[in-house]
Amino acid sequence: MVQQDVQLRSEVFRQDVEKMARWMADEEVTEYLNEEQNIDHELRSLLDRSPLPVYSPHFNRDGCFFLVTLPADGPIGFVRLVPKRDQAEIVVVIGERRHWCNGYGCQAIRKAARHAFFEWRKERMVATIHRENRRSQKVFQKAGFAEKEKLATETRFTLPVERFLQH
């Protein structure tokens, strides 16, 4: 299989919310996420309450939300960036399991880092990852993040802008 280049798309349409609801109903996808329980129901409720064609403002309230897309497949996941003083927190989800372990998460992290560092002018990025989520830890480390501190059930990884520029 030839790896495609991911794109980050900021527009979120009705069919994208439907797809995200499907991802969030998959226990393997949400196993280590800190999303509220029944987030899939919340997304479906949003669609029922609001028959809009575009939902981007809803997803961008606390930062930037991007769909991770492939030219041939459309959305396969999402990235959320939340600005906090001199840093940006990042969450990456590849919801389409058939695309796991293909490097798409790493590509999405690198593209999101460009946004945080060059658009927002942040000094570092932070990812807080459940300790048992080894796959996510490896992806962030491959993207240049390094372990910063161990918390009760999670590990915090950081990527300073200097390391990003060298990586």
Fold and architecture overview:
Helices cover 37% and strands 29% of the residues. The protein is α+β, with helices and mostly antiparallel strands. It has a single domain (7-166), classed as Gcn5-related N-acetyltransferase (GNAT) (Aminopeptidase, 3-Layer(aba) Sandwich). Helix 1 (14-24) packs antiparallel against helix 3.
Descriptive terms for the model:
single chain; 167 residues; alpha+beta; Aminopeptidase; seven-stranded mixed sheet
What is the total number of structural domains? 1
Compute the number of helices. 7
Query: For the CA atoms, what is the radius of gyration?
Result: 16 Å
Low-confidence stretches: none
Assigned CATH architecture: 3-Layer(aba) Sandwich
- What general form does the structure show? globular
Order of helices and strands: EHHHHEEEHEHEEH
Largest sheet: 7 strands, mixed
| Binned strand content | 25-35%
The CATH C-level name is: Alpha Beta
Secondary-structure map:
Layout: E1 7-9, H1 14-24, H2 27-30, H3 39-49, H4 56-59, E2 64-70, E3 74-84, E4 87-94, H5 104-119, E5 124-130, H6 134-142, E6 146-150, E7 154-160, H7 161-166
Parallel strand pairs: 4-5
Antiparallel strand pairs: 1-2, 2-3, 3-4, 5-7, 6-7
Helix pairs in contact: 1-3
Structure, briefly:
This protein has 167 residues and is of the alpha+beta class.
